[in-house]
Fold:
Amino acid sequence: MKRQLIYISLFFSVALYSCKEDTITGEPPQENISEDITELKPVENYPGLILRAEMYDIYKQRFEMLPVNSPAKKNKIVKAMFSDSETEKKNATAEFISYWKDYASRWTQEVLERPEPDGVSLRGVWRCIHLYDIVKSFGYLKAGEENDFRTALVQAIKWAIGTDSKNPRIPDDYFRSGNIYTDVYLAAGLVGLTFYDQPQSKDWVNYALAELKWQLSHSVWDGCWHETPRYHAYTMKLMGQFMEVLYNRTGIDMFQHEKNKELAYWFVRFNSPRDKVASLNVGIADGVKLFPGLGDAAWGENLASVNQYASHYAKTDPKLSAELMWLWSLSGYMYSEEPVLDLLIDRSLPAAAPQNMGSDICPQRGYILMRDKFETEDEIWFLLKCGKTSMHDHADKNSFSLIAYGTPMALDAGAADYNDPGHKNWNKKSISHNIVTFRNKGETDINKYDSQNATDGVIVHWDSQNDMDYSVTDASKAAKVSKYMREVIFVKPDYFVIRDQVNAAAGKEAVWMMQTPCEDIQWEEHNIYCRNSWGTALDVHVVSPSTVLVKHQNPGHFGTWTEERPDRNTTIYPFKYQQTIQFPAPATGSIVTVLHPMKDGAKRLTVTSRDNGQTLNITKDGRQDQISFTEKGVNVTIGSKNIISEFK
Structure:
């Protein structure tokens, strides 16, 4: 069947969720999420900001279930909340005063009055307010001590957004769209919600609410936060804690906003298969689900926020809630690492897997996910990236990651420690990705290979059918060459055909690169057979160029650890290096490869070609396939079935 649509309807089929009734009260959620707040009432009973006094017994049960080494169990203030000792509550009050004053030392006029305020320091505002919510209930905080706290917070916000509460300082759209600004405006909103009787409180809350809506409108691209997955998860946590206070104080339930549901559901859409290698560190025998380690992110970072969001959809949208709980449970039951937020995590909610998740796309961000055999041991998961550039991106347009049969086969290197020189010199560069790079002809120093510019890539074509996925992406501008287009054909569930069309300047040559955690790599004349110790392998057939391969591999840094701190590895995988595989190719022409993920010992593909890789004949377990590239797309025959996919 011929298709000429750039994007299939799969993207538009992301579930649109309806609001039925509120999670806690059972009443319909507030409908005034588009209106300004006209009145702020006193808190009737503390805790009454992030927590609710009437849920004390539930919080206590959750606290008792937390791991002994969890932040909540180690926090003196949270512990005192569930203690009968008045001495512990008095000591916790003193602990709080010391805690907020330490944070306040970072709220200086110098860093907050900059054109781009230091939102990182303002993260302390919500952390302090969460603890204040508890300490206030103890009754030992003196009026003068509370006034000092209030004064420090109010001054910090005035430095950050200005003294005119009705016309707060709003930065340019670039900074406004990022997570650092989220820290700024939500800090203002929280101070307003906490100290309702300040003359500027309503203005600050309305400002925060307006900026929250603006970011949801401008910074959520096709369901994903425009920054990398790490910041997607962090921003959900940051927004979620504010929305919790907003709901408790005003009844406005921003969790029900469509964009917030899309943010939460994105992790369901793009979660990895159950990875049995990663689960070695978690103890989930059936495998653990990860979020992608793209850009400044690590494979398997914290997904606690989806649990908090799930609790708000338990009654309004039980299907979404159950899917989020399923994802959270299979990501290792991760907690938030914030002592108070951990009390909001509800392990009792039901979990249920989605019925079937196929291939998917985020057109603006440029994420293309090719997937088959969802939720089976044979699941194949291939994620390609080529779209709009955003904050925390790496030089990685047209790069891919591949997980198959519960094992990683080729992964993005993810982020290193930001303070590690290797982060800029390796992780952010093109050389650490599964990509075609360019270099001066004859250059052997990998550190001197060209790296891409921070320029947008383009999805030219996307077609997903039952038996085949096909994408065409263009990273020419980013790669600073006349042409760098990558075509990927996924013949489900068996193999991938990748054609990279390149045209670089005279004196250049192309280098096809792949990072793999496989330890045993066998170089053959036209194949690179990558075996690992987990019972799987990746067979790479190099169809074009047809020259005999020369072994070229070296270890590449993976994850966030450093030589000084080898234990600091936030990625969930048990390895710290991947092997960087390279083979050179002419600067102009086509590089054609076939990637065959397989169980070790399974029968390998047979691949022959003609016309410099224009047509491939592939034998898979006796089935004869043919792949033909045309000027308009591809003509694919899988056994006796013919599929044509063309684009304009």
Observations:
- The radius of gyration is 26 Å.
